[in-house]
Design a protein that fits this description.
The chain has helices spanning 9-13, 57-62, 90-104, 118-130, 147-153, 174-181, 202-210, 231-239, 289-304, 309-314, 349-361, 384-389, 392-397, 408-416, 429-439, 457-467, 471-480; strands spanning 19-21, 29-31, 41-44, 67-71, 84-87, 108-113, 135-137, 161-165, 185-188, 221-225, 245-250, 257-264, 269-275, 278-284, 327-333, 336-343, 370-375, 402-406, 422-426, 445-449. The chain is an alpha/beta fold.
């Protein structure tokens, strides 16, 4: 690991419009949130929707920030608080620092976008590439106009691989982000009617996802799902870019990286794949056919980077679900143990169907029940009511014994379900929480999913808090497993 600071004072002074005030220290990290700041971080006072980072400059410096990057117009307010880097605009300075990080880096860079599966694929790439060299990847879902430059600015100068997630909910949002990242390999996982409220059609979403190829380095590789009806449209975007090669992945017979067989289980999956003519078989350490399908994209990236495919595939045995995206918790009700599947980070029609398919695979002991706790899917525009209603078949096919629903759109789904499946409905997740907490019992498998804006994650958190095992019981359970 490098002993050099992440950013020297000379590098910070080289930022356009930068003026150093006071005695700053070299930065060992980057922060935009004073609550999670680590001593030595360079704190950027970014103006957000709900708050202005300038309100937290003093707190950041008190917590040990190496310096605070502030707007020149506000610098006079903080000259007594500690070292500052005054700039004309703090977000622009953060983006400039991100571009400086990319310019100095020799890492091989992969960028991922897609309507569904971005974060899971990014985390799988982190796991796989870490077996080949020092790998830097985005924290959580840092995929927007501030998350991408933060991730770039945090990239160690000696990183060998970098993995970046790039998101959007409007046209043209990916263009400036991929221009900063300049990937050697760019991935589109899939195209679905997500954020459709901001687009005229799903074709428009495909075009927006295709923007990622505009930033690909000359001779780079475009990795595109062959299973999408928009493959040709995405390939056209890649063909118009500097990419020198396209690799298609999926279950389609024309895919360059093709699933020969996927055996999805309740806790893991087995995959046999043909990777550019080489046959590999591997185990994935988490459930979900969608995870198995996206593993093909990861192997395509490994092939594009010239890495050993067998080693890359074998790393998948160590994959675990990220928090809020399929994480499984063993919890303890008075009547016995039950399982919580936390899918509450976000939701759209494709990810909702995938979560329900995974619920169907779960083993339920005698007396237990499959319980689906569902909340509204956001940003679907005029298609929202129909999209929720269309999930009724998937709910029934999941083998759910009981459904709890929250939100006006999900009410349409709940009303369409057989009477025997209806647990309770509430206008919002907060009002539904007591019904869910009161209903669970030993042997149940409870899956919670909905869009972030619904706060359905609070139901998952309430279950985890209320029914978490006492420390002694948890240690005993761990010893048994």
């Amino acid at each position: 690991m490098s002993l050099q600071p992440l950013w020297t004072l000379d590098e910070l002074a080289a930022l356009p419009t930068a003026r150093l005030v006071g005695v700053a220290k070299p930065a060992t990290g980057i922060s935009i949130d004073s609550r999670t700041l680590v001593p030595g971080d360079l704190f950027f006072a970014i103006r957000g929707v709900a708050s202005d980072g300038h309100d937290h400059v003093r707190g950041a410096l008190e917590r040990g920030a190496s310096a605070a990057v502030v707007a020149e117009a506000r610098a006079g307010e903080f000259t007594d608080a500690g070292p500052l880097v005054a700039v004309s605009d703090t977000l622009t300075a953060l983006q400039d620092l991100g571009c400086m990080a990319r310019a100095r880096s020799r890492a091989r860079i992969v960028a991922v976008t897609g309507s569904v599966g971005k974060t899971g694929t990014k985390e799988a790439l982190r796991l796989v590439l870490s077996g080949f060299g020092r790998t830097h990847a985005a924290t959580a879902s840092f995929n927007n106009h501030w998350g991408v430059p933060v991730t770039l600015a945090r990239m160690p100068r000696d990183a060998e691989f970098g993995v970046f997630e790039i998101g959007m909910n409007h046209p043209s949002e990916i263009l400036p982000l991929t221009a900063m990242v300049r990937p050697h390999v760019a991935v589109v996982t899939t195209v679905e009617p997500v954020h459709i409220a901001h687009f005229r059609s799903v074709s428009g979403i495909a075009d927006a996802k295709g923007e990622i190829f505009s930033g690909v380095e000359t001779g780079g590789v475009a990795v595109i799902t062959r299973d999408s009806p928009f493959f040709d449209r995405l390939a056209a975007h890649a063909g118009a870019s500097a990419a020198g090669r396209i690799i298609g992945f999926g279950e389609n017979g024309k895919a360059d990286v093709r699933a020969v067989r996927i055996s999805a289980g309740p806790d893991s999956s087995m995959v046999e794949a043909d990777v550019l003519g080489r046959r590999v078989a591997y185990r994935i350490g988490m459930a979900g056919r969608h995870v198995a399908q996206n593993s093909l994209a990861v192997l395509a990236c490994a092939a594009a980077l010239g890495l050993d495919i067998g080693r890359a595939a074998s790393a998948y045995a160590g994959l675990t679900p990220p928090a809020g995206r399929g994480e499984r918790l063993q919890l303890f009700a008075p009547s016995g143990e039950f399982v919580l599947i936390d899918e509450s980070f976000n939701a759209n029609p494709a990810s909702m169907r995938a979560a329900l398919e995974t619920l169907a695979l779960c083993h339920v002991p005698p007396g237990g029940r499959r319980i689906a706790v569902l909340a509204d899917m956001g940003e679907l525009g005029e298609t929202g009511p129909a999209a929720h209603l269309a999930l009724a078949g998937s709910v029934v096919a999941s083998g759910a014994d009981l459904v709890f629903a929250a939100g006006p759109l999900t009410r349409r789904l709940w009303d369409a379900l057989p009477e025997r499946l209806r647990g309770a409905y509430a206008d919002d997740a907060g009002a539904l929480e007591r019904h869910v907490v009161g209903a669970v019992r030993g042997g149940d498998v409870v899956m919670v999913k909905g869009s972030k804006s619904t706060l359905v994650s609070k139901i998952a958190a309430a279950l985890a808090s209320r029914f978490r095992a006492p420390a002694a019981d948890a240690r005993a359970a761990t010893a048994r497993t």
